[in-house]
């Protein structure tokens, strides 16, 4: 696999996930606001999680910064929130990846950890800058639980194909599972 | 631990935290006026986003029309009755409009608060984390959009434009009315004109909250609520919803009215942007 494909594939994958997040929310808002809470699709995070297992340190950190900026700028206009969280997530996975072999079960389990981290961070920031007045208990009940369930299921669906692409990208990379 | 937090890592962490906080506060202070870099990236993303929004929209439209086909008969019966009434109102409207125009000419009125032009657009995407309920639409400053214009969907007011890029823009919905910057001046079409402010949204019952209404005003359930055109760049006579419940506020000094919105905030796919002809005078 040539050099430019190694740059392009993860970028396109993340971009598609990012756009799908928005399109899904716009079209299926009625489905997503269920009786037990609001579902937040996090496809971008799921793809980022899988790619963090395969790409080199520098590559994934740059990618998560760019994607974070896009996410912030495109969806809310409050810069920095997702830039910080995406980079944090990539960093955490980079630390963990020498202990885990990438497979679907690990992805699903890690997605629960990572999305919990992300939701708490984002909620914390929005609480701090006074955009939401939701209490911690209500947040856990109305947002976190159902979102974790939904994104876990999404991971089961997209995990395998994205993992295959990740493997393809890494084939020529010498730095596999090393930092 | 000392290996995990070496000196270099500590510095990187510190610098990134400082960068994060300053970037966030910078974008908070100048909300609405996005810079060139942001406008560029938003537009590029929005153009790509359309590629996804179009087919999904088409599929959704198809299923929607199949869905509607099932209760066409009932709807037809109901509409026939409604049409009979509409003939009468139409005649009345025509007479009133003529009369209004003659009177306006008499008074030499150039622009009234009810005059506006419309621009239609469709929704590309919606903010996935519902903390800030915003949608991105495929119309921008090139189509004549400006910050602060009000946006309608399914015959009801849904929000206002907060950020315009050349070919796309963001609309903040009435469902996140927590900041004071997003209030809408409204009036209840009762026997007398009752003015107030739409200043909140009740998430649990999906109703808008209207406050600052004099306690002596008599409001009946089912009365229509429209924009009053008294503040900002929102014209008069845009439908907001109907009165659902009338209560007193926490201090018992003013009335608080719960409004059932005319627009469905969960099915926003096509929007109409309202451009008021009269100057806002701001």
What this model shows, in words?
The complex is a heterodimer of chains A (179) and B (282). With 179 residues, chain A is mainly alpha-helical. Helices cover 75% and strands 2% of the residues of chain A. Chain A contains seven helices and two strands; from the N terminus they run ααββααααα. Chain A has helices spanning 3-27, 29-32, 43-52, 57-76, 81-96, 104-128, 136-170, and strands spanning 33-34, 37-38. Chain A has a two-stranded antiparallel ribbon. In chain A, strand 1 and strand 2 form a beta hairpin. In chain A, helix 1 runs antiparallel to helix 3 (43-52) and helix 4 runs antiparallel to helix 5 (81-96). The model of chain A has no long low-confidence stretch (mean pLDDT 86). With 282 residues, chain B is α+β, with helices and mostly antiparallel strands. Chain B has two domains: 35-112; 117-278, Thrombin, subunit H (Beta Barrel), CATH 2.40.10. In chain B, 33% of the residues lie in helices and 30% in strands. Chain B is built from three helices and twelve strands. Chain B has helices spanning 7-29, 36-70, 72-107, and strands spanning 116-126, 134-137, 150-153, 156-164, 169-173, 184-189, 193-202, 207-214, 224-227, 239-248, 254-261, 270-276. A six-stranded antiparallel barrel of chain B has the order 1-2-5-4-3-12. A six-stranded antiparallel beta barrel of chain B has the order 6-7-8-11-10-9. In chain B, a hairpin with a 2-residue loop joins strand 3 and strand 4. In chain B, 31% of the residues are buried. The chains are: A mainly alpha (179), B alpha+beta (282). At the A-B interface, helix 1, helix 4, helix 5 and helix 6 of A face helix 1, helix 2, strand 1 and strand 2 of B.
């Amino acid at each position: 696999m040539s050099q430019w494909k190694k740059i392009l594939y993860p970028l396109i994958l993340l971009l598609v996930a990012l756009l799908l997040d928005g399109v899904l929310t716009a079209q299926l808002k009625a489905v997503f606001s269920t009786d037990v809470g609001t579902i937040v699709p996090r496809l971008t995070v799921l793809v980022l999680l899988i790619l963090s297992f395969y790409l080199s340190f520098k590559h994934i950190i740059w990618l998560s910064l760019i994607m974070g900026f896009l996410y912030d700028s495109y969806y809310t206009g409050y810069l920095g929130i997702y830039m910080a969280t995406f980079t944090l997530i990539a960093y955490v996975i980079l630390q963990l990846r020498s202990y885990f072999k990438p497979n679907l079960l690990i992805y699903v389990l890690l997605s629960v950890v990572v999305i919990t981290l992300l939701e708490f961070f984002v909620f914390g920031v929005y609480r701090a800058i006074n955009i939401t007045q939701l209490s911690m208990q209500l947040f856990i009940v109305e947002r976190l639980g159902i979102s974790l369930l939904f994104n876990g299921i999404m991971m089961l669906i997209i995990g395998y194909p994205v993992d295959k692409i990740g493997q393809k990208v890494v084939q020529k990379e010498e730095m596999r599972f090393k930092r | 631990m000392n290996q995990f937090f070496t000196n270099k890592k500590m510095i990187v962490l510190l610098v990134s935290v400082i960068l994060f906080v300053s970037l966030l506060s910078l974008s908070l202070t100048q909300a609405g006026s996005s810079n060139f870099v942001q406008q560029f990236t938003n537009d590029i993303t929005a153009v790509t986003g359309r590629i996804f929004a179009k087919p999904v929209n088409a599929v959704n439209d198809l299923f929607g029309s199949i869905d509607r086909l099932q209760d066409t008969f009932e709807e037809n019966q109901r509409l026939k009755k409604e049409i009979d009434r509409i003939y009468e109102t139409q005649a009345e409207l025509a007479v009133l409009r003529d009369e209004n125009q003659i009177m306006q000419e008499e008074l030499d009125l150039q622009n009234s608060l009810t005059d506006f032009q419309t621009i239609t657009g469709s929704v590309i995407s919606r903010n996935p984390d519902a903390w800030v309920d915003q949608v991105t639409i495929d119309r921008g400053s090139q189509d004549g959009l400006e910050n602060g214009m009000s946006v309608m969907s399914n015959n009801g007011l849904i929000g206002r434009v907060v950020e315009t890029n050349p070919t796309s823009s963001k609309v903040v919905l009435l469902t996140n009315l927590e900041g004071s910057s997003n209030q809408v001046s409204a009036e209840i079409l009762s026997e007398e004109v009752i003015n107030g402010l739409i200043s909140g949204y009740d998430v649990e019952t999906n109703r808008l909250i209207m406050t600052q209404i004099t306690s002596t005003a008599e409001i009946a359930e089912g009365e229509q609520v429209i924009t009053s055109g008294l503040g900002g760049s929102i014209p008069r006579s845009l439908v907001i919803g109907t009165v659902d419940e009338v209560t007193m506020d926490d201090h018992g000094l003013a009335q608080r009215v719960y409004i059932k919105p005319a627009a469905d905030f969960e099915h926003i796919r096509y929007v109409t942007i309202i451009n008021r002809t009269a100057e806002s005078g701001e």
